[in-house]
Every structure is written in C-alpha cells, then in structure tokens.
Amino acid sequence: MTVIDVHTHVFPQITCREGALLSDDGQPWLRVDGGGAGMMMSGDDEYRPVGEALWDPARRLADMDAAGVDVQAVSSTPLMFGYAAEPGRAADWCDLVNERILAFCADAPGRLLPLCQVPLQDPALACDVATRAKVAGHRGVHIGNHVGDRNLDDEGITAFLAHCARLGLPVLAHPWDMFGADRMRGHMLPWLCGMPAETQLSILGLMLSGAFERIPPSLRLCFCHGGGSFAFLLGRADNAWHRRDIVRAASPRPPSEYVDRFHVDSAVFDPRALRLLVDVMGPERVMLGTDYPFPLGEMEPGATIRDCPGLDDTECALLLGGNAEAFFAAAVEEEELVTEGSAP
Predict the structure, then answer these.
(1) Which residues belong to any copy of the Amidohydrolase-related domain (predicted)?
(2) Which is the most buried residue in 99, 171, 245, 246, by most CB within 10 A?
(3) What are the C-alpha distances in Å from 38 to residues 51, 98, 298?
(4) Which residues of the chain have pLDDT under 50?
C-alpha cells in the first residue's frame, strides 16, 4: 500500500534580496540560523520559527522514511502567495518560487510531487504561469482560498479553475489571510477558528453561486483541513437551500449534491470527526493530509485514518494513498514518461 500525503509545505531557501522581487518592504524570505533552525521572514519582521524540514529535502526524506510516508505533494507556504503585489511582479515571483520548488523535489522525483503557485490576483496571468509550470514539471497548483474580497466563485478565479481542468492540473486550495482577525486575538485563534470558516465559505460559495455548474467536472480540486467546518454544517446548508429561495437562487441543486465535485484531506485530528467526514464525502473523496512540517499538523501521519471507527482495510487504503494516486494519476504517468524518455 502506497502512503501519499497531499498536504505538506515547503519554504525554499530564498534570500531577502530575492524576496525583493515581490515586495520592497514586506518581502517573504527565509533566514537560516544554523543548527537546523530558521525563521520565516516578512521583510524585517520575524513571522514564524521553523525547522530544516521546511527547506532541506534530505531531512524531509528522512522524516518520510521514519513515518512510513512514500510520497508527499509539496506546496509553498501561504506567506509566499504574493496576492497583494502588482500582477507582473507577482508572476515573476511565482516563476522563481516554482523553480525553487522543482529544484527541491528533484532530489527524489518519485517521492516529492511539486505543486506550483500562481498570481491569482490576475487570472489570465495565473493561467500563463500554471501552463509554464506544468510544462516545467509541476504536478499540481496550490492556491489560497480567496484574493482580497474575491472568493473562489469570482468569475476570473472560476475561469482559472476551468483552465486547470483543461490542463489536467490538480488544485489544492488552502485557507489563508483569515477574516475577522481583529476579533481573534491570541491563542492561534485565526488558525483554529478562522481557517475552518474560510474553507467552509469557499466550498459553499462554489456550490450556492452556481460556480460548480460552470467549472468542468473534470477539475480535480482538494480543500485542506478536512474542508474546514463544511461537513459538520452541511445539513444546515441543505436545510436553508430547501427552505429559502434566496439561498437556492443561483444553485439548481442542494449543496449535498455537489460533494462529488471535490476532495478534502484528512487533517481533522480526531477519528470521530474523520468518521463524519467520510460519511459525508464518501471514502473515495478523502485523502491523507498532515500539514507537515508545521506543529499544528498530524505528527504521526495516517494515525487518524488508522484509528477511524468503521473503516475497512479497502477504505483505509483509499484514504492513505489510493485516492491520491487517482488524484495525481495523470501527473504520475507524465513523470514516468519523462523518466523513460530521458533514460540512456
């Protein structure tokens, strides 16, 4: 059984000078302090202390071996998105980040699947960057769940998602820049409350706006952190759709009929919560995700899946790797073709 973690992060070694490609003052960059320690930086401000697994592929592979993880999908840290920058500048920045992610994954191309990032503030440019990234070898695209006040159901962003569907490029959507931050002071409340709400907002927005009717069903889309609050509150959304015309005005079907349009990862950290998630989404729509290497991630990859009540061996294998194999299937096939074509 292959174990595939679809939700892991990287911050390649990007200097302050290189970060200035994106911003003159709040540029994202990585300060490596030695002894396996580092600091994610935003200009001169320290953003978060981190360890070498975030930028050192050898350390990452050692961790994967110790945890029994065969493959990771590797995506940038949301601090790196750059959605507030001028689009042309952000496109150049994304090209740099994507190049570094490819280099990071080149140490183990069969085990580290690179996901690109794009300047989502300009959907046309984002399409161009995604196309270049796929040609260069990226296996998917990592996006934030909104750009300012534009949610995923924004016309331009849905056009980008349709482009990814045509490219056969899987999309991983990650919450970030959480709303209500002025009321979530301390205790990491933006991560504990804001992120689940952001993800639920994204999913319901795609459903109730009719966006899923406009996006090709071939799009492979995954939401992080178990889809946030979505599964627990789906019944409330369905009830509202049936009882209020203003809820169903743009959506021809109730929310529960769209759960086959996306995947979620398993990062809910409680077997009882995962049981509900599998019941709502179906066992073929949930994939192992740990949020590695951050402290809020699952420290023992797959433990929640293995402890989930009522999962049989076949379903457990789907969640641990089988579903992810299908999610990234075209990319894996392309990688094998490239490998075969480059053999002496």
Answers:
(1) 4-328
(2) 171
(3) 6, 21, 21
(4) 331-344
Residue 176 Cα to chain centre, angstroms: 11
Condensed to tens digits (0 to 9), the pLDDT of residues 136-157 reads 999 999 999 999 999 999 999 9
Q: Which of 61, 171, 43 is nearest to 108 (CA)?
A: 61
Closest to 201 measured CA to CA, from 141, 151, 143? 151
- Give me the amino acid identity at 41: M
Distance CA 319, CA 64 (A): 17
| AA letter at 183 | R
Beta strands 221-223 and 4-10 are unpaired
Cα–Cα distance between 77 and 176 in angstroms, integer? 10
Is residue 7 within 8 Å of 289, Cβ to Cβ?
Answer: yes
Q: Do 75 and 115 meet the contact criterion of CB atoms below 8 Å apart? A: yes
Domain assignments of the chain as residue spans, ordered by start:
4-11+56-341
For residue 151, list its beta bridge partners. Answer: 146
Distance, in Å, from the CA atom of 107 to the CA atom of 74, rounded to the nearest integer, reads 13
Cβ atoms 135, 163 nearer than 8 A: no
Using left for φ > 0, alpha for ψ between -120 and 50, and beta otherwise, residue 188 falls in left
Q: How far apart, in whole angstroms, are the C-alpha atoms of residue 271 and residue 307?
A: 6
Q: Give the separation between CA 277 and CA 230, rounded to whole angstroms.
A: 9
Only one residue has tokens 């924004």, namely 154
pLDDT of residue 26: 82
> What is the DSSP secondary-structure string of 46-80?
EEEEEEGGGT-HHHHHHHHHHHT--EEEEEE-GGG
Residues β-bridged to residue 156: none
Angle at Cα 209 formed by Cα 204 and Cα 214, nearest 5°? 110
What does the alpha-carbon distance between residue 318 and residue 281 come to, in Å, rounded to a whole number? 13
Query: Are 48 and 30 spatial neighbours (Cβ–Cβ below 8 Å)?
Result: no
What SS3 state is found at 143? strand
Confidence (pLDDT) at 330: 64
* pLDDT at residue 336 in the model: 42
pTM metric for this prediction: 0.93
